[in-house]
Amino acid sequence: MSAPAHKEPDSFAFDAESEAKIATILKRYPEGKQASAVIPLLYVAQRQMGRLTQSAWVPRVAMDVIAERLSMPPIRVYEVATFYFMFNMKPIGRHHLQLCGTTPCMLRGSDDVLRACKDAGGLKGVGDTSADGVFTLTEVECLGACVNAPILQIDDDYYEDLDYESTVKLLEAFKRGEAPKPGSAIGRMASAPAGEQTVLTGRGDE
């Protein structure tokens, strides 16, 4: 049985906050090259939907508005939006759980993070949105932070060095409306080695 179709809004207009961002974005491109702004404008539209509706996605009517603003055929905006994985073509939960399952994260325990997302997030699996509308779970390709694997990107932030227990605590905090600090769950600084410092701290003759 296929999932029911989502309801598209009848109209879309950029609000004042988005318009201010768009004005800055369009200054980057010379006259006649405004179509190059399609990706950042799609992102502005998605962020506005998240801000106003608690679901960050890009409705078709928003793509039509972007096409008109950039003087390009709507189909070209649709092509860009559907090509890039970072744009959501249907409503998602309030928090987007983006789990990396590629080799480094898999070897470091991404399966345990996935299990925690299911258990603590009330999710059936990848592609599911929790019944309370708080989480949507997506599997993504490499997030580029392999040294701190496994990684779970939540909305725009990276949470690193996770295991089952730390992921459960993380999701429970989000459910309480908290904003946990991004970064390593084990307290490592940036991409420093886990554990104690292993490099020399003084001159060799000391």
* Beta strand %: 5-15%
What's the N-to-C terminus distance? 72 Å
Question: In this structure, how is the largest beta sheet organized?
Answer: 5 strands, mixed
Backbone shape: globular
What would the average pLDDT be, to the nearest integer?
A: 91
SSE class: alpha/beta
Count of separate DSSP helical elements: 7
- Which stretches of 5+ consecutive residues score pLDDT under 50? none
Q: What topology, given as strand order, has the largest sheet?
A: 2-1-3-4-5
Q: N-to-C SSE series?
A: HHHHEHHEEEHE
The level of helicity is: 25-40%
Describe the structure.
This protein is an alpha/beta fold and 206 residues long. Helices cover 37% and strands 10% of the residues. It has helices spanning 16-26, 38-53, 60-70, 74-83, 103-107, 110-121, 164-175; strands spanning 95-100, 135-140, 152-154, 157-160, 183-184. A five-stranded mixed beta sheet has the order 2-1-3-4-5, with helices on one face. α7 (164-175) links the parallel β4 and β5 (183-184). 26% of the residues are buried.
Q: What's the structural blueprint in terms of helices and strands?
A:
Blueprint: H1 16-26, H2 38-53, H3 60-70, H4 74-83, E1 95-100, H5 103-107, H6 110-121, E2 135-140, E3 152-154, E4 157-160, H7 164-175, E5 183-184
Parallel strand pairs: 1-2, 4-5
Antiparallel strand pairs: 1-3, 3-4
